[in-house]
Amino acid sequence: NKWGVGSKDFNNGVVILIKPTGGAGERDLFIATGYGLEGAITDLATKQIRELEMVPFLKEGKNYEALINAITAIEKAAKGEYDVKIKKKRKVSSKSIFIIIGIIILIVLLSKRTPGGGSYTRGGWYGGYGRGFGGSSSSGGGFGGFGGGSFGGGGSGGKW
User: Fold this and answer.
1) Please, which residues have CB within 8 angstroms of residue 144's CB and are 6 or more apart in sequence?
2) pLDDT for 72-119, tens place per residue?
3) Is residue 80 part of a domain?
4) What is residue 111's DSSP assignment?
5) Is residue 50 part of a domain?
6) Is 29 helix (H, G, I), strand (E, B) or coil?
7) Mean local confidence (pLDDT), 58-70
8) Backbone phi, then psi, for 156, in 5-degree steps?
9) How far apart, in whole angstroms, are the C-alpha atoms of residue 32 and residue 46?
10) By mean pLDDT, which of 39-43, 66-70, 145-149 is the weakest?
11) Cα–Cα distance between 42 and 40 in angstroms, integer?
12) Nearest to 124, CA basis, from 18, 15, 43
C-alpha cells in the first residue's frame, strides 16, 4: 500500500515478489492483487501463473522469462477489466534514475540484514508445493507519496 502501486481510484495494482536466492525450497515467489482486480485475477489464477508460467523458468535461472510470462498472463486475465489509456511518454530524468537505483540498493542491503530477507504475508494464503505463507504480519519498510491503490484482496505465494 505504501508503494502506491496501481490506481488509487480502482485499486488495480499487482505486485510480484521474487526471492531468487537460497536453496531449493528456500526461494519465495508471491503475487498480490489489489481489490479492484480480484474478479479478473483470482487467487487460483495467481497460483496457476506462479506454478505454470514462472516456477519452471525460475528453476532454470531464467528470471526475466518468468516475469515476462507472468506479466503476459496477468495482462490476459485482466483484459477488459479496465480501459487502459496510453499516455504520452515522459522523459525520465537522471535524478529519477539515481533515486530508483538508490532505493533498489537500499532494499537489497536491508534484506540481507533481516533474517529470512524480510517478507510480506497475510493469513491463510496457500503456498504451492506443500508450503506457504501464513500468519498475519508484514515486515519491511516502504515509502509513500504516490497515492496508489490498496492491497488486501487476493494473491498467492509459495516456495520453489
Assistant:
1) 2, 4
2) 999 888 886 554 454 566 666 777 777 777 777 777 777 666 555 444
3) yes
4) H
5) yes
6) strand
7) 92
8) -155, 160
9) 8
10) 145-149
11) 6
12) 43
- Residue 91 · residue 50 · CB < 8 Å: no
- Residue type, position 109, single letter: L
Query: Taking the model in full, what pTM does it have?
Result: 0.53
35 within a domain of the structure (yes/no): yes
Residue type, 112: K
In a domain, 41, yes or no: yes
Q: Confidence class of residue 54 from pLDDT cuts 50, 70 and 90? A: very high
- Average per-residue pLDDT in the chain? 70
Cell 504520452, located at residue: 88
Considering its fold, how many domains does the chain have in total?
1
What 3-state class would DSSP assign to 154? strand
Are 18 and 58 contacting, i.e. CB atoms less than 8 angstroms apart? yes
